[in-house]
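Help needed: design a sequence for this.
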């Protein structure tokens, strides 16, 4: 549900706001030139972008760690195809990466693959923030792990959380326990005891 809502928000921003408005809101960087291509020690393809007119990048803009999609400047960035891509709904020939480094004058993006051929034919680019599907993928993997676990403490916590199992009460009395923090009041001590 959250992912769908984020998809819709990105799609609306892309189709209802002009590129300049998206840039003013920190969702995009426009009028960029590709100034340098190289590889990271981890083997990622790194592409460094700077303003075509050599101005500094806006202060409030894309940040390190943001997932971005590379588009050519021009009419293609005003259609719904890029909006679908940004929201995770289509591959197209656009490539996505992660902002790797940022300085006042340039921004480096790490891509998992070499840039598409069309980037050699284009001199001006846009970078737009796109949906970070990694977060949702990790969340689903975690839910699968909780669902599938057997004979572990995670299974016990899951079953207690879902009301399928009652938590066991400790057989210990408050007097039998030596608390590390002797400033705990009676209610705090009982809370600790209920966790044992």
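Sure. Designed sequence:
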């Amino acid at each position: 549900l959250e992912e769908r809502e984020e998809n819709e928000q990105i799609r609306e921003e892309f189709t209802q706001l002009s590129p300049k408005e998206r840039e003013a809101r920190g969702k995009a960087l426009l009028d960029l030139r590709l100034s340098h291509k190289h590889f990271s020690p981890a083997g990622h393809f790194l592409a460094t972008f700077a303003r075509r007119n050599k101005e500094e990048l806006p202060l409030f803009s894309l940040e390190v760690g943001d997932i971005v999609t590379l588009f050519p400047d021009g009419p293609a960035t005003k259609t719904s195809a890029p909006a679908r891509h940004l929201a995770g709904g289509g591959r197209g020939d656009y490539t996505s990466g992660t902002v790797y480094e940022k300085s006042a004058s340039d921004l480096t993006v790490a891509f998992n693959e070499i840039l598409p051929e069309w980037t050699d034919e284009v001199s001006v680019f846009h970078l737009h923030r796109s949906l970070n599907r990694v977060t949702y993928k990790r969340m689903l993997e975690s839910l699968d792990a909780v669902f599938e676990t057997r004979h572990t403490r995670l299974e016990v916590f899951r079953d207690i959380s879902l009301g399928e199992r009652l938590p066991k009460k400790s057989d210990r009395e408050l007097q039998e326990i030596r608390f590390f923090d002797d400033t705990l009041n009676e209610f705090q001590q009982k809370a600790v005891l209920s966790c044992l």
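The longest strand covers residues 28-39.
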